[in-house]
Design brief:
Length: 276
């Protein structure tokens, strides 16, 4: 079987047709999907009426699972988290982010499936962080290459607790378990060997090698820069659509425009490696 990969923008995102994720999918097909992912960074599969077990099995091929410390697990499948939202404004997904960058080993990627959708809205956008790095001037690249930044759960966690999106008992105790992680500002993707910008609006608080006020300005510029529409693809979900993304070289943003309607998604996240 050869899969049909249809790019959605010149920069990021492709729809994959001719694949039934209910599986089983043989090794050559999975390798084609993997290669398509490295090329397009985010893959969209429509009309995949699959069970949680089938979703978990598809994700498993890419590596071990990440068990998120704060997300709500599926009652029957602890590898899966359930995103169930009617008040999306403050849940932290409507801010450009790379998942779990506050961890030493942030997520490799995720498989997300639309279970229940609002009548309108609830799109998700992804952005290409290779393109964000490539678009910087040589002088800015020189400044950032070799620099490191802190990624901290504290503020997003406080916000999530304030708005009822997280049930952690104590922000301080949770934070103590997850002290800020230090990662390179410019990361090299372990499979493609390409450099990419690795700072995000949810978690990155400080560029370590700069003075505090310098960091505020440079980081502020970078956190705006990564939002450029020419780095992005925007996906309008349909029932049973499935998205596979590489979390290492992308960021995403869930559009919170469906308040009062329910949106339920099943997510399986894969464990990543330490950024280098
Ligand atoms: O619900 C979505 O579309 C994306 C949610 C999100 O930001 C995430 O899974 O990290």
């Amino acid at each position: 079987m050869t899969i049909d990969v249809v790019p959605l923008t010149p920069t990021i995102g492709a729809e994959v047709r001719g694949v039934d994720l209910a599986g089983p999918l043989d090794e050559p097909v999975m390798k084609e999907i993997e290669q398509a992912l490295y090329r397009h960074l985010v893959l969209f599969f429509r009309d995949q009426d699959i069970t949680p077990v089938q979703q978990v099995d598809f994700a498993r091929w890419f590596g071990p699972f990440e068990y998120h410390p704060f997300a709500k697990p599926h009652p029957d499948h602890d590898e899966m988290t359930v995103l169930d939202q009617t008040t999306p404004e403050h849940d932290g997904a409507n801010s450009w982010h790379s998942d779990s960058s506050f961890m030493e080993n942030p997520a490799w990627g995720s498989v997300l499936r639309a279970v229940q959708l609002p009548p309108l809205g609830g799109d998700t956008c992804w952005a290409n962080m290779y393109a964000a790095y490539d678009a910087l001037s040589d002088r800015m690249k020189q400044l950032l290459d070799g620099a490191t930044a802190l990624h901290d759960i504290l503020v997003p966690l406080q916000k999530a607790v304030t708005y009822g999106h997280s049930a952690v008992a104590s922000v301080e105790e949770t934070r103590a378990k997850w002290p800020a992680a230090r990662h390179p500002v410019v990361r090299t993707h372990p499979q493609t060997g390409r450099k990419l910008l690795y700072v995000n609006n949810n978690f990155t608080t400080r560029i370590c090698e700069l003075a505090e006020d310098e960091s505020r300005v440079v980081l502020g510029f970078l956190l705006d820069h990564i939002k450029r529409p020419d780095f992005q693809v925007r996906f309008t979900w349909s029932p049973n659509a499935v998205v596979l993304w590489d979390n290492r070289c992308t960021q995403h943003y869930a559009v919170p425009d469906y308040s009062g309607h329910r949106r339920v998604m099943h997510r399986v996240t894969l464990e990543g490696e330490r950024p280098r």
